[in-house]
Each structure stands twice: as C-alpha cells, then as structure tokens.
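new request in #modeling-help
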Amino acid sequence: MTIASVSQAVLLSLTIAGLYAAVAAGLTLTVGVTRIINFAHGEFVMLGAFLTYWLHTRYALSPWLGMAASGVALGLFSMLVYRVFLARVLKQDEHNQLLATLGLSILLLNIAVILWSPDPRVMQAPALLPSLRLGDVSIPGNNFAVALVGLTLFLVMLWIKTHTRYGTQMRFASDDPELALHAGINVDRVFELSFVIGGAAAGVSGGLVALVLYVQPTVGVDLVIRAFAIIALGGLGNIPGALVGAAILALAEGLTSTFVPQGGSWGFGVAFLLLLLVLIVRPSGLFGKQVQT
Amino acid sequence: MNAARLLNRLGFYAAVAAPFVVVAVAEHPFFVQIAIGVAVSAILALAWDILSRTGQVSLGHAAFFGMGGYGSALLTPVFGPVLGWAAGILLCGAVAVLLGAVTLRLRRLYFTIATLSFSLSIQVFILVTPDLTGGSTGIMPPVIAGGSPPHQLLFITACLVVAATVSDIFLGPRFRPAFFMIRNNPHLAAASGVPVTRLKILAFAVSGMVAGLAGACYAGLYGYVIPEDVFTTNWNVLPLAVTILGGMDTTLGPIIGAVALRALEEVARHFVGGVGYQVVYGAVIILFIVGMPVGLVGFARGLVRRRRKPAAEADTVKARLAS
C-alpha cells in the first residue's frame, strides 16, 4: 500500500462520490419537499442511462447531449408520473406512499428487463475530457467528467432550493403545506415542480452512469439504495448533508474494495454497516434535525 | 377465547389446509410444486404482515428467510433434525430482537432503509465467511420428508396453519388494538399505557421467526441452497406484493394473495418468459395501493357488509311498521 495507490483510490472514489451526490441530491430535494419517499428515483436514473446509451450507440449522439436529452425526457416523464399516479397517492398515508413508489420501481425495473434483457452493456464512448494527471496519480477523463457534472448538478439543486423563488415556496410548502396554501402558494404545483426537477436530475445522473458504470436494468436499484443510505447519513432533505454522505459512502466502498482482500464483495456491506451505526447513534442522520420520538 | 370463536377458527384452518391437502393427495407433480411455492410465499407474507401491523414496513425479510434456511443447515448437525430446525428459527427470533431494538427509534423511511441494508449486509456476511457458511458455494440443509414432494407439501401446509394461528393470535383482542394504535399514533399509544417498545420488539421477533420458518421450509425442499437463492430482493419484495394483493391486517389476505400472485406470475411467465415476470409484482402493488388499498379480502368483506346492511335496515323498518 503506497501513498500513490492510496491517493489513486481516494481520488477515484471521490469521482464516484460525484455521481452518488447527483443521484442523492435529486432524491433528497423531492423527498424533502413532498415527503414522498420515491423508490422509483433509481429507475428514473436507469432510464436516463439507457437513453444516453441508445442515443450514443444508435445515433452517435455525444454523451454530453445525451445527458441533456435524458434530463429533459425524465423531467417530462416525472411530470406524467406525478399527474397520473403520485397526486392520488399523496392523499394516502405514508405507509401506502412508500409501498406505491416501491411498486412503481419494481414495475419500471421489470419492464426494462423485458424490453432490453438483464444483460449489462458498456457504452463505447471516447473520453469526454482529457485524463487528469497529478504526479503518479491519474484519473480517467470520464471519471473526471462525472465528478464535474455531478458536482455541478448538486450545486444547481442547492441553488434552486436556497436562492430561487420556487425554492422559497418549496421550503414553505414542505414545512407547513396548509399555511403555505393560505399564503397563496399553489402547493400542488410546487410539489409537482420539485418532483419534476428531481426527475430531471435523475435523467442527467443516468447519463453519468452510462459513462462509468455498466448500463443494465438493476443499476437504478443499486444506486437508489446507496442514495437512500446517503440521505439517511446526511439527513432527510438536507442537500449539503447529501454531499458529505456521498463522499463518506464512496470512500468507504472504494477503500475497502481496493485494500481489503476480496474486498470487491465487501464494498456494499461495509457501507451499510456504517449507515446502521450512524442511524443507531443519530436516528435522523448526521446533519438531520433530531426529532424526539 | 370462547368456544364459538375457537370453533370458527378451527373451521377456518381446515378450510385453508384442505385445498393443499387435496393437491398433495392427488400427487399431480406440477400442481404439487405450485402449491409448495404458494404455501412458502403465504408463510413469508404472514410474517411480513404481522410486523407491518405495528407500522414497521420491512424490506429486509429475505434476511430472516435466508437465515431460517442457513440456521437449519448449520444447527442440525449440532442438535439433530427437529431441535436443529427449532434452534434455527429461534436464531431468527434472536436476530430479529436485536434488529428490532436497533431500529426501534427510526422513523418510517429510515426503518425501511435500515431493514433493506440489513438484508444486504447478511448476504455479504455469508459471502465473506466461507469457512462457516460455505460462502458462495452454498450449504446443505436437511431435506424435508425424504425429498418426496407430496409429503413435503403436507408438512409445509402444517407450517402454514401454524403461521396462520400465530397471525390470528396477533389479530385477537389481546394485541390488535395495541398494534394498530402503535401504527397510527405511537405517541398516543405510549401515553395510553401501551408498552410500545416491548410490543414492537415482540412483533419483530415473531415476524422474524415465522419468516425463518418459511425459509427453512424452502431450503429443505432440495437440501441445497446458495446465497443467491434466498437472500435476493425477490424475497424482500414478494411478501409486500402478496400481502397488498390479498389484504393487509388479515390472516386470510396473505394466503389468498399468495395464490392470486402465483397465478398472475404464471400468466406473466407465459408471455414474457423467465426474466421480468416480476413485472406483475409492481403492477399489483400499484393497482391495489391506488385502487383497492384494502386488498381482495378487504374488498370482499366490504361487499358482504354492503349486502347485509340494506337487509338489516329493511328489518328495522318492518319492525317499526309492526309496532
């Protein structure tokens, strides 16, 4: 274990953290505002990954444009899902909401399996950015691109929530929907908008997935489980917390899979033991508001 | 429990067991396999439902399902077949108590994530301890009934009746009000003197043991399981789909749900093949949560009640006219 190999592993893990942060930021924005625990967020990411992949392999469209197209497509798809399905579920209790989005997730995953088979695919794309060299350490160009786009997407989510008029309305509507309604805010509209923004973020994250991971139907589940772990670490609805959670999770996974013998299969388990430990000590996450229960 | 209720319940168990026994006696190989699958799903779904009555939505029941199988495999050489099974199921209960204590304070989403991550961690644990658990090559639990499918079906039907009895105990007057109060308003429950902590952990322990029973039955079918057989998302999701389809908070619901879901699954397999048939799980959950949250059993009960109501009203009108 040399300094170079450690810093290589750390830097690579941090680029993956960029992807995790992008997925988790979209999810935590939606969950933080609407309180809908959207399990299907992972499938939105998976659909984005497939869209970017197909646009590149069939029509030779640059992954940059593919990402943007996925963002738009999944934003529209989220709007459809919200209007047809989620708006009805919102009125039911939390127990049922959880079950409903879980059902949607299973449905989309298996439709993808039926349409495209469960086989993993690799997108053969030329590197989007030149690889980054720092002494003995080098980061492949696509990992660098993922880190950059992931971080940008994360900052956009944060900016929307803290610096725009809609963000203010979102925070108001999530704190006290009834009062917000009396204040003249169209709560339903605000919920829908936050769901659509979260969906668009998922679509772009899907493009990132196609750059560095296998494109396959189960990729969304793998990511959404991690994203939930991240937002549980960071605190529900806490966007900066999601970045810290993503870094912790990606580092824990990356370092064990590199330095523990046969660590490849450990990665997931270690990350979750970490999560369980944090939840035991702080049941609302590292940075979440601690609620007395 | 009074005599009438006892008789009613005994009749119910006989009615549940009868179709399975008929299939076992008829010895039709295809239907015997289907019935075994249905009974195992029903036991697992009953386990999930018992826990869900306290508001704890688990996505980690594959962990207990797998542990039931692995426990019976590892403990049978130590304690012999009968005690080994019992010890394996008790192990599930003990682990469930620990998990229940750890996740006690977690709110809904966090609870669900914690159970999901628990089941993934258990799978990792099996994979990295090949000396103890056989790792990815699997393990050999004791075979039920010498490997004869009709006899296995009879045995698993008996296990289903046991699970149904346990479920009924927790729907009885002693536990039902407390469980639903904990689900709807834990603070009110605690303020009213319901021992919330103890009951939540009790529900977890019982649920874990019943899920372990299902797993031990499943693992004992062929006497060989690998981690990918039992610790998969499929077994985490199946109990939800079954219970929601049949009807939550009932004993009959998960059993009817297991039959109906298996039928849908067979239809889906016919059209889409071996992969992707789980699309019906998703469709069923969505349709029933949005359109019929009470499930098939709840819907049927509603129909019966509506039928009876006009009749009862007519009687009172007649009575009034007569007086």
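bot summary: The mean pLDDT of chain B is 87.
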